[in-house]
Specification:
Blueprint (H helix, E strand, L loop, with lengths): L4 H16 L17 H13 L2 H15 L4 H6 L12 H21 L11 H7 L1 H10 L4 H4 L3 H11 L2 H15 L5 H10 L12 H13 L4
Helix pairs in contact: 1-3, 2-6, 3-5, 6-7, 10-12
Length: about 220
């Protein structure tokens, strides 16, 4: 029988977070000058600033998995973590996991914390702005024109159908997004990374619409 959620999280929960940071990217583990690659650096940057204790948990879980890969019985019973496709042959997965664990350990021992900066991977955008990924991906997807007459209607629907605490969280994330100081092309990329599949309403540039959306949601969608 497959692992129950509690047992899965205890053995593989943080390992899974690290692996998810690599989805859609080719796993390497080595960046410039022997440091972590972009995906692992994004995981470290976000986790050090939100859940610093989890870095050590990730290192331990990855190390144990690499040292004790699942045998045929555990595979048949489903009592193991199936590493998703990270662009490596199966024979290279173990060495890659060990390199990742080494980078995590070095980060802890040296206190090497990546400085704050705008997100650099798809995973990091969603990890840093989880409520905006719900807002943009759920209300401003390619289906928005079929569901709402305009952007304002979609925004009001989100504001009235979503718990007030989550709306407040979205407002905070919008303000944080505005504070990144990106140029307009970069803000357009940010919106796309967070799931928005329609253009901002005319005549707003991406940054101006983000600011207006924050003000409107803070006012209750009015």
């Amino acid at each position: 029988m497959s692992l129950k959620p509690f047992e899965f999280d205890r053995q593989f929960g943080e390992l899974d977070q690290v692996i998810r940071a690599y989805l859609g990217r080719t796993a390497d583990g080595e960046g410039e000058e022997g440091g972590p690659d972009a995906a692992l650096e994004a995981y470290l940057r976000h986790t050090w600033h939100t859940r610093p204790w989890a870095v050590a948990v990730a290192e331990q879980q990855i190390r144990e998995y690499a040292d004790n890969p699942p045998g045929r019985l555990r595979r048949r019973l489903g009592e193991f973590y199936p590493v998703p496709d990270v662009g490596l042959p199966d024979a290279e997965i173990r060495d890659w996991l060990e390199r990742v664990a080494d980078h995590l350990k070095r980060s802890i021992e040296d206190g090497a914390v990546p400085p704050p900066c705008p997100p650099r991977t798809h995973w990091e955008w969603h990890a840093r702005f989880p409520e905006l990924s719900q807002l943009f991906g759920g209300w401003f997807s390619q289906d928005m024109p079929d569901e709402f007459p305009d952007h304002d209607s979609a925004m009001r629907d989100y504001a009235t159908q979503t718990d007030a605490q989550l709306v407040a969280r979205a407002v905070g994330e919008l303000r944080e997004l505005s504070s990144l100081g990106l140029d307009e092309a970069e803000y357009a990329v940010a919106l796309a990374e967070l799931g928005m599949e329609v253009d901002p309403p005319a005549p707003f540039a991406p940054s101006a619409w983000i600011a207006q959306l924050s003000d409107r949601l803070r006012a209750g969608g009015s």
